[in-house]
Amino acid sequence: MSDAFASPGRPMAVLLPPRAPEPIGFPRLTWRHGLFFVVAAVLIASMATAQTPPAQPPASAAEALSTAPATPFSVIIKWSPLLLKGFAFNIVISIAAMTLGTVTGVILGLGQISVNPIVRKVSWFLTQFFRNSPWLVLLFFAMFMIPFQFNIFGVIMPFPDWVKAIIGFALPVMANVSELLRGAIRSIPNGQWEAATSLGFTRTQTIWQIVLPQCVKRMLPPWMNLYSLITMATVLASVVGVTEMLTLTAQVHAAEGGRPELFAPLYGFAGFCFFLYCYPIGKLTQRLERRFNVKT
Amino acid sequence: MATAPTADAAPAWTPDQPIVSVRDVHKSFGGFEVLKGVSMDVKKGEAICIIGPSGSGKSTLIRCINALVEVTKGSILVEGQEVNDPKLDQLALRRKVGMVFQQYNLFPHKTALQNVMMAPINVLKQDKREVEERARKLIAKVRLTGKENSYPGELSGGQQQRVAIARSLCMRPDVMLFDEVTAALDPETVKEVLVTIRELAEEGMTCILVTHEMKFARDVADHIYFTDKGVIVEHAPPAEFFDNAKDERTKTFLGQIL
Q1: Domain boundaries, chain B
Q2: Which residues of A touch B154 (CB under 8 A)?
Q3: Is B18:B181 a contact under the CB 8 Å cutoff?
Q4: What's the ipTM?
Q5: Which of the listed CATH numbers 3.40.1380.10, 3.10.450.50, 3.40.50.300, 3.30.70.2740 matches domain B44-65+88-246+253-257?
Q6: Tens-digit pLDDT profile for residues B28-67
Q7: Which of A8, A18, A200 is facing B119, going by the closest CB pair?
Q8: Residue A240's closest CA among A100, A93, A79?
Q9: How far is the first Cα of chain B from the last one, in angstroms, to the nearest whole number?
Q10: B168 to chain A, minimum CA–CA distance in Å?
């Protein structure tokens, strides 16, 4: 109610709640999180130690120095630039898949509420088909159905594996966004449509100017949740040979001689990176959900 | 029922003819007949109140007038234009007929001023500056100066309803439809909305109201229609209607309400 909230030109007005809100900060890491990480690290380290083969007494001091296996920690430090580069690639794939999936999903979702019955049925079928298929199946589907290059009017467009992976991940995103959008549109009270119609808005104008802007707010939390899920699913791309973080982790493990005690720390590091990235997104989603639940 | 039929009115409409002419309108939802042959005439500048028990088809009737609901049978003429015509120019109809709803139905993602300006700019493609000037005047008219940049969620029910009235007026309609516009409001805020409507009626706007505010109907309306079970049971000027009701159903209803 305060005048501070009545200032014109507020950015992203649709994201704002109808009543004075508490500020939403980005989730901050506290000592609790620190404690959680310490416990996790101790667990992983103890697993690593448990798996270490009993040390052979070194024949000589010199030999001990030259062959002393690197500690798991130093291995991670040594390879972290490469592993983090792989992780960055996961992020790139997830963002690209989410973007592509959202754009196509919005089109498909609008198709689901089309007045044309054929468009509606086809959109419904595509949505259901891709929503109810395992992500890994869709990934294989994209990998092996899409040719490695396209010939468009004489211009040869290569389609490397990682581009196909993006398409593979975009398919379930598309179907889920389509369904999210359909649900969000249905949740807009009928009165909004009536009011718009009585003011002379056409159906298309009503959808774009009145219904969709309101859907953004409703869709944002589940959409972020979907993003977080797809980010974690990008490691599936290692199955089809894309050199993302998990592939690199396996390679690093092999390069270090495949020592079993390195298994937990290396994969733990990968998991930890995803946790650090996805946990704040999940927290933020929760806060947005709580805020948007406030009734007007 | 109503006055002599003028349904055969030529397309050329003159202001001395009824601005809204409803002839033997039937409406069914599924197998349920909500309107069973309703006729009424509204002259330009008149304020008409439709009263009656809930479920008697009042809201459906006024929704038919601006083609939000399609009639099953019968004819509705607005300024000589047949509403029940498949080739109807809906935009032309909707700029003539404004409507205000029980639940306000403001667009929650737009400020009060934007709500008022949206349709003239986006639908009628009018000049933005001219529309803004008009919108600010209308907001002042409904006594909401200072609330231009508030979002609907920041306004009280009565304030929202007045914004909704301004939003409708900004299309410069010839007829205003009010569908139980005070039914969702607190008793204290009902008055501020009724004052606004009364002013409109006094300025000569043609108003068709569905209402449960009997005192208001008596003070403001030129003519009262009483509906029950999909038909118009009785209609008369307010003084006669309230003091001298002829039909038993009207008497029972008034007895329960007054």
Answers
A1: 44-65+88-246+253-257
A2: 1, 5-6, 18-19
A3: no
A4: 0.88
A5: 3.40.50.300
A6: 998 899 999 999 999 999 999 999 888 888 999 999 998 9
A7: A200
A8: A93
A9: 25
A10: 7
